[in-house]
Design goal:
Structural class: mainly alpha
Strand order of the largest sheet: 1-2
Helix content: 40-55%
Distance between the termini: 48 Å
Length: 134
């Protein structure tokens, strides 16, 4: 691991996926210090493809798929389902991604920005009450 972790930022997306799969396999035999090092290394590298343009992003850029985030219409910022399919281990991947920084709460600054956007649309008259209730 001491060889692979410092090189994560140099790896291709395919190699990053293979590294993540390798760490899932090794997880049961890793000590706490090693797991912390692995998570810390992945927190610093963009390793999740977000869109069709194959844009890589950090885990901390994304939100965990939760009903409250669906209500806020943040589905474009969820970890893509295709990512989980490639890892072949949904629950291990979710646990790892949460440790790597996928958001489980809505930051205050994002909430304020969203509220200002809603206020702006409401004052322009482009937003109808029925849309707010959807």
């Amino acid at each position: 691991m001491t060889v692979v972790l410092p090189q994560l930022s140099q790896l291709t997306w395919q190699n990053l996926m293979e590294a993540a799969c390798l760490f899932f396999v090794l997880q049961p035999i890793c000590d706490t210090q090693s797991m912390e090092a692995i998570v810390a290394a992945f927190q610093e590298v963009a390793f999740i493809i977000l869109d069709a343009r194959r844009t890589l992003c950090l885990a901390s850029y994304l939100y965990h798929d939760m009903p409250s985030f669906r209500t806020l219409q943040l589905q474009n910022f969820f970890v893509p389902k295709s990512y989980f399919k490639k890892l072949r281990s949904y629950w291990k991947a979710v646990d790892f991604l949460l440790k790597a920084g996928v958001c489980t709460s809505f930051p205050v600054e994002d909430f304020v920005a969203l509220a200002e956007e809603v206020e702006h649309e409401a004052t322009r008259g482009t937003c109808h009450a029925a849309e707010l209730l959807d």
